[in-house]
Specification:
Elements: E1 3-7, H1 11-23, E2 27-31, H2 34-43, E3 48-52, E4 54-55, E5 58-59, H3 60-70, E6 76-80, H4 85-93, E7 98-101, H5 106-127, H6 135-139, H7 145-158, E8 164-167, H8 174-183, E9 192-196, H9 202-210, H10 227-230, E10 235-239, H11 246-258, E11 260-261, E12 270-271, E13 275-280, H12 284-289, H13 295-301, E14 304-307, H14 318-332, E15 339-340, H15 342-350, H16 356-370, E16 375-376, H17 389-413, H18 417-424, H19 428-437
Parallel strand pairs: 1-2, 1-3, 3-6, 6-7, 8-13, 8-14, 9-10, 10-13, 15-16
Antiparallel strand pairs: 4-5, 11-12
Helix pairs in contact: 2-3, 7-8, 14-16, 17-18
């Protein structure tokens, strides 16, 4: 339900409005003063707001300016007396959505708010990237700080047309992230077209990307629209772009620079209106050093970078992901009621997941199908790779080294995170994550 912030210093009117909005299916939040309203805006995201033009010592115009400093896209409807109509007109110039004069028709107010919510709902939902009902949070699942940052970068990048490069190991969900970028962008109603560079033979790649006319080559018995033309107005996702042949990279660069394409066998030039998202699990800088990838193409596609962390680096997300996949496959196979035992969950939490989220999904699907009991136990958790004692020794040695290193680092810098970050060349956010992982409090060293 849409959240509406109502601000009025008339307690009786405030309560009436709250009840009317609630009865019409909204979730109203009431504030009696500008200060109270601003505090609520700092702690939550609202779909629309209703401000009275007079709020004690502060005017609605002042509140509008302060509210838009916090949330520039908040649609605000003003309630104004005849004596303050000029103020309401000024508010419209400063970005208010609409206004009503008192006495007003409550139905008209509800209609105006509903219209504001409908018009702005897409961009408003995107802002709530970490809320449970956010489309991004429902797709990019997890509670870890790393996952929260990924959702925030997707939401921010989605609002622009800048080319995005997604880096992540196999199985981390690169196409899923690309689809969410498209879903939260202004292009969300246009096509999303995905291609995998590694899956297309080199001889067919130009035809697949750019299309061809009938008779352009032997076997071309009809006109074919290429991926770029199919995605017109929307998004092209090029997965495993690191596997694209050098000759094709040159042609792709020209298309991205000129924003136009000519199908094979055609003299026509098609102007492109697309957003390009690419991805790889390879280090493109190493590919450039080895002369396997063009540096100029790298900088063209690498405007915004989104890095998807491997599952082993966000283990706290595993229970939520397990619950999601368990729900998905128990419904699919008619096995409702199954749960995962604590021992089985502990085993999954200690596994390194070389296949990342894709491997976790396969493990849960297999367990749902093969486990005869309602409780999925440890013996039903079958990993693709067995972790031997050497891997366990390595993990324990790494854990011990990290803890000793971090404690020495904190002692040397007296718990100063900024100094520790510079000295160790570890990003502050990553350093906090490591300290939290080993239960080390910088305050203990100050």
């Amino acid at each position: 339900m849409a959240k509406v912030l109502i601000v009025d210093d008339d307690i009786s009117l405030l309560e009436i409005l709250r009840m009317r909005f609630q009865s019409c299916g909204f979730t109203p939040h009431a504030a009696q003063s500008a200060g109270e309203a601003l505090a609520m805006l700092k702690s939550d995201v609202f779909d629309a707001a209703v401000f009275d033009m007079r709020l004690g010592s502060e005017t609605g115009l002042e509140l509008l300016r302060e509210a838009h400093d916090i949330d520039s896209g908040l649609p605000v409807i003003f309630l104004t007396a005849y004596g303050t109509i000029n103020d309401a007109v000024e508010a419209m110039k400063q970005g208010a959505y609409s206004y009503l004069t008192k006495p007003f028709d409550h139905r008209e107010l509800i209609e105006k708010v509903a219209d504001a919510v409908e018009r702005c709902s897409h961009s408003r939902r995107i802002l709530r990237v970490n809320d449970a009902d956010s489309p991004i949070a429902a797709t990019i699942i997890g509670c870890s700080e790393k996952t929260r940052r990924v959702r925030e970068r997707i939401a921010a990048a989605g609002q622009s047309d800048a080319n995005v490069f997604i880096y992540g190991e196999s199985g981390t969900g690169k196409e899923l992230a690309a689809r969410m970028l498209h879903a939260v962008s202004p292009r969300h109603k246009a096509p999303f077209v995905a291609m995998n560079s590694a899956a297309i033979p080199e001889s067919l790649m130009e035809s697949e990307l750019f299309g061809h006319e009938k008779g352009a080559f032997t076997g071309a018995d009809r006109r074919k629209r290429g991926f770029f033309e199919q995605a017109q107005g929307g998004t092209v996702f090029m997965d495993e772009i690191s596997e694209m042949p050098l000759a094709m990279q040159t042609k792709l660069l020209r298309v991205l620079e000129n924003r136009e394409v000519s199908p094979l066998g055609s003299e026509k030039v098609l102007k492109l209106d697309i957003r390009v998202v690419s991805a790889s699990n390879k280090n493109l800088l190493e590919k450039i050093e080895n002369k396997e990838f063009r540096a100029d193409l790298f900088y063209r596609i690498h405007v915004v970078r989104i890095e998807l962390p491997p599952l082993r680096d966000r283990r706290e997300d595993i229970p939520l992901l397990c619950a999601h996949f368990l729900n998905k496959y128990t419904h699919r196979y008619g096995r409702d009621g199954k749960v995962i035992s604590e021992d089985a969950m502990d085993r999954m939490m200690s596994y390194d997941w070389p296949g990342n989220v894709r491997e976790l999904e396969n493990v849960i699907e297999c367990a749902v199908v093969m486990s005869p009991a309602d409780v999925i136990k440890t013996d039903s958790i079958k990993f693709a790779q067995n972790q031997d004692s050497f891997a366990q020794v390595y993990r324990e040695a790494k854990r011990q080294f990290e803890e000793v290193f971090l404690r020495q680092l904190m002692e040397r810098t007296k718990g100063n995170i900024s100094k520790a970050s510079k000295l160790s060349d570890i990003y502050r956010a990553d350093l906090y994550d490591l300290l939290k992982k080993h239960s080390i409090d910088p305050a203990d060293f100050r």
